Structures are given as C-alpha cells and as structure tokens.
Amino acid sequence: MAVKITDICIACGACIDECPVEAIVDDDDNPNNDGCYFVYNDKCVECVGHNDEPACAAACPTEGCIVWDAVVGSQPHREIDEDKRSAHAPVVE
Questions:
Q1: Which residues lie across from 25 on neighbouring strands?
Q2: CA separation (Å) from 13 to 61, 72, 87?
Q3: Across the strands, what pairs with 90?
Q4: 0.85 exceeded by the pTM?
Q5: In whole angstroms, what is the distance from residue 77 CA to residue 14 CA?
C-alpha cells in the first residue's frame, strides 16, 4: 500500500512537506536514481490515522501526478478497488 509519484511531477516539494510519516524523498535522494520524487512503500500509510485523505495528493498541484500503488503486506491502507490501483488512477480527481 502506497501512493506513487509519476514522471509528470513538477518537483514543487508540496508532497514532501505534507507527508506525516516522511515517506517521500526528492530526486536527489531517490534510491532508483531516476530523477523523480520517490515514495517509500514500506513507510507510506496513505495517511490512515493521520488525515482524511493522502496529504501528498491533497497538496499536489499537478492532477494525476500522485497515483495508487499496490497494497503492501498488512500495512494500514484505504479501501480502494484493485482496478483503480492497477490503473494508476489519480488519488484526488
């Protein structure tokens, strides 16, 4: 369970500032070295227990930049249909 940041990210930093669990890193700290912002799957909790919706998505000015990823293990997550996760639908429309 995690959100994912796509390559249409404009690197504004809004998501990093809003993440309550510090799961998002900028392009300099991306472990894949692909020049994009990165969300650590094992840290992201989709803001369950922190906010009513993922704070990164609410703060993001780029529509469709932040999408759902697969549920990881037994971590807290929001009830999102698998078809929406696999289709990488925007978190906030």
A1: 38
A2: 10, 25, 25
A3: 67
A4: no
A5: 22
- pLDDT at position 74 is 60
**CB contact at 8 A, 45 and 51:** no
Rounded CA-CA distance 57/65 in Å is 8
Distance CA 33, CA 77 (A): 27
How large is the average pLDDT for residues 27-41? Answer: 87
Cα separation, 42 vs 90, in Å, equals 20
**What is the pLDDT averaged over residues 57-65?**
88
Q: Going by C-beta distance under 8 Å and a sequence separation of 6 or more, which residues neighbour residue 45?
A: 1, 21, 23, 75, 76, 77
Non-local (6+) Cβ contacts of 72 within 8 A are 1, 2, 41, 42
